Amino acid sequence: MFVDFKDQPPPPPWQPRPAKRGPQLTPRQQRTLGAILGVNILLLLVAPIGGATLLELLGIVLR
Questions:
Q1: DSSP string, 10-63
Q2: What residue spans carry the region label Disordered (predicted)?
Q3: Distance (Å) of CA 21 to CA 15, 24, 25
Q4: Which residues does 33 contact at the CB level (< 8 Å), separation at least 6?
Q5: pLDDT tens, 3-60?
Q6: Is 0.85 surpassed by the pTM of this model?
Q7: For residue 50, which of 38, 60, 42 has the smallest C-alpha distance?
Q8: Distance of CA 37 to the CA centre of its chain
Q9: Measured on CA atoms in the order 48, 49, 51, 55, is the torsion positive or negative?
Q10: Exposed e or buried b for every residue in 19-44, given b needs 16+ CB within 10 A?
Q11: Given this model, what pLDDT does residue 16 score?
């Protein structure tokens, strides 16, 4: 079956929906989160080395 669309306007161009934004952190929350992340990253790098060094030092002292 044939449908005549000559008198129909074209559809509007597709536009994506605007992205929903979650709640924003306050400056104090940002500083706190940054400090927590910084300490965790520092401990991630230093703790295994420091733990092994302390255990070795403890072994030498107890000999």
A1: PPPPP-PPPPP--PPPPHHHHHHHHHHHHHHHHHHHHHHHHHHHHHHHHHHHH-
A2: 1-26
A3: 18, 8, 12
A4: 25
A5: 777 788 888 999 999 888 888 999 999 999 999 999 999 988 888 777 778 778 888 8
A6: no
A7: 42
A8: 11
A9: positive
A10: eeeeeeeeeeeeeeeeeeeeeeeeee
A11: 92
Alpha-carbon dihedral of residues 57, 59, 62, 63, nearest 10 degrees? -110
Q: Judge whether 33 and 25 are in contact, CB under 8 Å.
A: yes
Amino acid at 48: P
> What is the rounded radius of gyration, in angstroms, for the C-alpha atoms of the chain?
31
Give the Cα separation of 38 and 45 in Å (integer): 11
